[in-house]
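2024-03-11 09:14:02 INFO receiving multi-entity request
2024-03-11 09:14:02 INFO entity count = two
2024-03-11 09:14:03 INFO echoing inputs for audit
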Amino acid sequence: MADEPLTSSPSAPEAPRRDDPAEHLAKRVEELPSADAATVLGELQSDQAAEVAEALDPQTAADILAEMDATLAASVITDMQPPEAATVLQYMDPDDRVDILEHVAPDLHDRLVGELKPADAADVHQLEQYPPDTAGGRMTTQVTALYEHITVDNAITTLRQLSKELEQMFYVYVINRHRELVGVLSMRDLILADPQTHLSRIMIRSVRSVPASMDQETVAQLMRKYGYLAMPVVDHNNRLLGLITLDDVIEVLEEETTEDVQKLFGAGAEERLNSPWHFSFRSRVWWLVINLATAFLAGAVVGIFEGTIQTLAVLAVYMPIVAGMGGNASAQAMAVAVRGLAVGAVDKKLMRRVLIRESIVGLLTGIVIALITAAVVLLWQGNPMLGVVVGLALVINHTLACSTGAGIPFIMKRLGFDPAQSATIFATTVTDVGGFFAFLGLATLFRSWLMQ
Amino acid sequence: MADEPLTSSPSAPEAPRRDDPAEHLAKRVEELPSADAATVLGELQSDQAAEVAEALDPQTAADILAEMDATLAASVITDMQPPEAATVLQYMDPDDRVDILEHVAPDLHDRLVGELKPADAADVHQLEQYPPDTAGGRMTTQVTALYEHITVDNAITTLRQLSKELEQMFYVYVINRHRELVGVLSMRDLILADPQTHLSRIMIRSVRSVPASMDQETVAQLMRKYGYLAMPVVDHNNRLLGLITLDDVIEVLEEETTEDVQKLFGAGAEERLNSPWHFSFRSRVWWLVINLATAFLAGAVVGIFEGTIQTLAVLAVYMPIVAGMGGNASAQAMAVAVRGLAVGAVDKKLMRRVLIRESIVGLLTGIVIALITAAVVLLWQGNPMLGVVVGLALVINHTLACSTGAGIPFIMKRLGFDPAQSATIFATTVTDVGGFFAFLGLATLFRSWLMQ
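2024-03-11 09:21:47 INFO inference complete, emitting structure
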């Protein structure tokens, strides 16, 4: 770019723009904290972000990409020159590196791993043994482990040497010569202990750990519930493999929340605000097709009563009201149930109590809404019997809506599914089908009274 | 209970049940970790839980109640004898105590605070200055602060004395004699430093703090983004007031997520799985009344076309399909937008890109759904023109649904509202009104072709 011929105007106002814009942006980005720089890069198209990343020094680029959403960072890495991408990956923490590589296409993945140092490549292979949503897939391998037979004095000297590499260090894990986790010490315990004591004498032996195969959400809930700052991860022989820290927990919880919310609404768990349109299209269209099938179910119920509608077209005016209000009541009950299940445990007794409570709430909100609606019907259409039919249908549909809205997530969880996944599809099908059936069925039953 | 007359049967199998069940449960609960005990208590009715809490020793009860959801713990406290409740509160950390007191009725609140030690009551008053959803309302006042002029050696001796009181201690904050925050030290810095150095020489001066008035969600996002483990809270004179730790952040994020999800579905932010039915009823019914107004809007649109429906009752079969599919497409777009806005920043450029992308996705999913639906219409009703009308309405409604579903949360945030609050109500109104208008309008326009 720099050796392009100059344009004729010597004082061209565009002159500064002739610099490589990527370099220009790189210079501004490297002055930001890496989390902010990650936000800036995240808003660019991935090919532009890749150019900026190539213009940065590899350590800075590594810090920034590690702060980005892994799917996003992977698309930047994919758009970089492979040797440069490998260099940047080389500068990352092992867990961040694997998180990103996991989202890169298989052949590029292998090529990039091939360009890493042999030790780092081996590390990638080790971490990739564990699925990304498990403790093993989420942990960092940078964990401070000391042998039980050394003294406090030795321990402090070792920590002093390690301290440059290890950013976060609250607990020191103690292992025996088989690398089995046998105890834990806080930095405070070390400060307060006699320098000549052996670690095995002062360590806390009841150290809690999780197996590498444990689901990341279970680990996060465990750490959140008991307030652990860090949790050591072990293999099936109790050998220390790595560490999960509280900021991983926050990431896991946010990820899971995003997944829950998006699944609840039928958008894929993986979609983000800056996903390309074809990704969104592919992940959403299937859900819509499934929904179409259930929508036809509701349509078919209406079809049964086509004759009644033919004679009483005004019913069509109240169809969306009955079905829609049921859908809303159901959504309210479902939101509370899904959140309750996300942060707590499922329990038969609780479920029974929730179902009873929801039936009461459904009945009562149904009555309130029915009374208002009946009044409006009377004023608008001047047909008291229509008011009664719409009102009754609303009460029935609200009661049905609240109990199924709360019940479906419980049943999903009981059956081992995600309580959020597809819960709305079942719930709205119930309120649509139930609402139309109740409303149009009652209208057919009382047809002669309705036709004043 | 113990001096009730015995029944005639001397070997009555119910004999063990004659013990006070609260006492019995208290004995079992006190052996559990307090987080688990909190779960057990949370599943009881609040008056039963209060009896159990009274049967426990005050420290254990305090630990357990501190682990419970604050609204739940407050209802237990309310059901306890006030002197016993005050004793339990006395044993709590200042921030937990205030969290619970905040949810207690004003007169009981004042009575309980009156029974606290004067110093603790003063503490409550100080913390209550700050609204509960701010840094000041969320912080703990138990923060390790040392004066800048003392030596490392002195610091370690002081920490040794404090270590029993202060459970979590990663950073030591350094203050000057006006209690202004001037620096920070990690425990590691202290271990590695020369014992005779003054803290002012080794402390990190660029310590980041937040004002007590800052919104808790802003603090949480800040700490999450930059990976801070703890954040000191200061008053407007930069005097150290307290500390927010990473587990507070997790709590805040979970609370805010629950609020977001529940607001999105129109259930109140405060409702929980074990809220009493009258609480759920009161918080939900208003939203449903508002929804009823918008449902009538959709009904009114249908009303405009009553004549068309009279002649073509089959249209009523496709009304729920057109409106419902639009609602689903809108919900997908909205879920991605709401989550994106919850974890990231709003930006005009991003918004434009999202809107363009959503219009493309809406158009394409609309076309796919329209083609399938048109094929079904042809097979089911044998009316190709009806297929065309339903299909066109679906394409229009999908495009409208995706752009408004994503756009509404952006606009809400721009205007300074919560992007989740009431977003669904606007979005479904748009898809209902838009869907019915497009579908029934097109049907009216092509009425003569539809009536084969």
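2024-03-11 09:21:48 INFO post-check: The domain at 16-128 of chain B is CATH 1.25.60.10 (MgtE N-terminal fold).
2024-03-11 09:21:48 INFO post-check: The longest strand of chain B covers residues 181-186.
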